Structure formats: structure tokens, C-alpha cells
Amino acid sequence: MEKVRVLVVDDSALVRKLMSTMLSSDPRIEVVGTAPDPLIAREKIKQLNPDVLTLDVEMPRMDGITFLENLMRLRPMPVVMVSSLTEQGAEVTLRALELGAVDFFTKPNSDLASTFSDGAQEICAKVIAAAGAKPRVRTEVRKLDVPPRLSADAVLPRAQGAGTRGGSPLIAIGASTGGTEAIRVVLEQMPPDAPPVLITQHIPAAFSGPFATRMDHCSAMRVCEAQDGQPIQPGHAYIAPGGQHLLVMWDGAKYVCRLHDGPPVNRHKPSVDVLFRSMAASAGAATVAALLTGMGDDGARGLLELSQAGARTLVQDEATSVVWGMPGAAWKLGAAREALPLDEIAARLLQMARQPLKSAVGA
To answer: What broad class describes the main subcellular location of this protein (predicted)?
Structure first.
């Protein structure tokens, strides 16, 4: 198997060295070069023909966003943005994803000894996934310590039965790599009186608030970052905060959002499996769910649990997914009967939400 060839672009010599070391910890990756700014990077892309670019946001002579915009217009290629965990960093990174970046990685802090393994594991996984992704353009080697992989059982036991306590439909959406743009496409097509939409997107804590604000500006629905105990209402979309699991619970009179600070599930927090499991237990057949583009398989088993509870389920198709990991895993499990292009998903979710409720399997 040929190695994924990576060019690291960052104005900090320390970050370039750190990123090169982290990427080189994976035998599947070869760092073919580094560049301190976009103008040098442009020449090295021509010379080295890398498979993936890691790109800093703030650089001299030309900022990363301007360079990315030019790159995606003239020579589209997989790009993983490297950003800071600040509000400004979040805004710029979300803009980069709009322009066609496949994914992003937050810069490791100065305490390298304690963060090396986790950071290296994350960036290597993102680069490997990016190498096989389909970018969508708008007009010393260290052994990695892999943490245990937990299931949704670590947060919420699976319910023995499922109910439709509220009666009215709820829409659930899960996504990861490429998901910020896929979610935008879906929400832009939702009317202001759409059923409530619950969303788990793999995203850091500093990014989820700005992401929710951006979605609120582009959707007729009211979009917000979910709060603990918040009532779930039609015409509203609720995005899981980064670093917390989002659950849907029935409090005796209405559905509410619940936030859970449990361990990562499938190495993610928030986890799509946790959201889907909670909805299988609390809403069951009243749920309409979609699993969108993303790396890994988080959400696949949760979607299957929803389907078994009588919910209507679908996945984004491979052709329009940046990475067909999560939806592909769900499809292989038989968790969904339909795989649709991204542009058709909103209309289909609304259509399914208007249909009479199904009965839970085995009920």
C-alpha cells in the first residue's frame, strides 16, 4: 500500500516540526515537505505533488483562507485545516470547510508529552481519511496509545421498549467529516415550521457555538446550541455542544434536551450513537433519522436501534459524501433502506415525518 504523501504548511517552525513528527508516527504517512507560507507552498505542491495538505489559517504574505480559495479553484485537493481553539479560529475554520477543506485539526498545546499520543492519533486519522475523500468545492517515531473504544452503553443503557410519547415527529441527524457543510445543505431546505431537528456533529467545544450561529443565519428554522433541559419545539434545530453528549428525554409533558458529560463513545463526544439511542428509547417510531457523511462508524449502531424501534431511517449516499464511513457502516448493517444524494435528504425527511407512525419491530 502506497503511503499518503503530506505537505505541511504553517508559519511556525515549531508547529511544522511537531506536525511532521506526529504524522510520521503513522507508517501509512510520509511527510514529503513543509512550507512556511502559501507562496512557498504553491511551488512545493507543483514539485512534490502531495496527496494531502495540512494548512494553517493565519500566515504571512497570504492567509490560509485566501490560499485555500485559490487552491480549490485552480487545483482541488484534500486539505486538512490546522486551527486554534478560539472563537475567531472557529469562524475561520468553518469558512474553510465551506470552501472545500475536508476536515480540521486544532493545534496541539505546548505540553507535548501529555498530548502527543492523542493528537497524533487524531491528525493521522484525519489525514488518512482526507486522502480518500472527495473534496466538495463551492462556486522520532512514537508508538500511539489508543484509548479504549466505548459504546453508547457507557452513557445510556439500551431501553427494552420504545415509545412515541409525544406523538409528533422528531428529526435526528448525525454527521462528522464533511458534516458541517452537509448539515447546512439540509437546514437550508427546511421550512420555518419543520419538525424539531436534533443534530450531533463531531466538533470541538469552541466550535459548536459559532457553528450553530452560522446555521441559524442560513436556515428558516431557529438553530441553536442545545442547552440542558431546553424544551424541544417545532421550527427549531438543536446542535449538540462540543464536549457533551446530546440526549432527548421525555419529562412527562414534553420532549427536552439533556446534556451528558459521560465518556467519549466511539471516541467521540458528542456521539451520534448516544443521540440516536436516546431517541429510540424516548421517541421510537416518531423519529425520522439521517446519518450523513463522516469518518468511522459512530451512529451506525444507533441508526439500527432506531430502525428496530420503528423509526424511519436513511443515509447519505456514497457519491455525495466526503467520506462514506459512518453512512456506509450503517448501510452495511441494514440500518437504513434508503441512501440518497445530499440535495434530496431534507425533502425526504420532511416527507417521512408526515407519514403515519410505524409500529416498533416486535411490538
So the answer is: cytoplasm
H-assigned helices in 150-299: 179-188, 205-218, 272-282
DSSP 291-317: E-SBSS-TTHHHHHHHHHTT-EEEEE-
Residue 141 has pLDDT above 50, yes or no: no
The pTM of the full predicted model, rounded to 2 decimals, is 0.83
Q: Find the CATH number of the domain harbouring 227.
A: 3.40.50.180
Residues 203 and 67 in one domain: no
Q: Helix crossing, 300-308 with 272-282: angle to 10°?
A: 10
Residues known to be catalytic: 176, 202, 298
Rounded to whole angstroms, the Cα distance separating 299 from 45 reads 36
Reported as a single tens digit per residue, the pLDDT across 70-86 is 999 889 999 999 887 66
How many structural domains are present in the chain? 2
Q: Which of 201, 9, 186, 219 is nearest to 90 (CA)?
A: 201
Measured between alpha carbons, how far is residue 42 from residues 7, 31, 48, 62, 65 in Å?
A: 11, 16, 10, 11, 14
Q: Which of 85, 114, 131 is the last residue of a domain?
A: 131
Let me know whether 217 and 340 are in one domain.
yes
Grid cell locating 335: 440500518
Q: In what order do the strands lie in the sheet with 338-340?
A: 222-225, 236-239, 197-201, 170-175, 287-291, 312-316, 338-340
Q: Find the domain containing 254 and state its range.
A: 163-354
Cell of 313: 431511517
Give yes or no for a contact between 295 and 318, defined as CB atoms under 8 angstroms apart: no
Say if residues 348 and 189 touch (Cβ distance below 8 Å).
Answer: no
* Rounded CA separation 330/343 (Å): 19
β-bridge pairing 170-175 and 287-291: parallel
The answer on 175 and 126 residing in a single domain is: no
223 in the same domain as 171: yes
Is residue 145 included in any domain, yes or no?
A: no
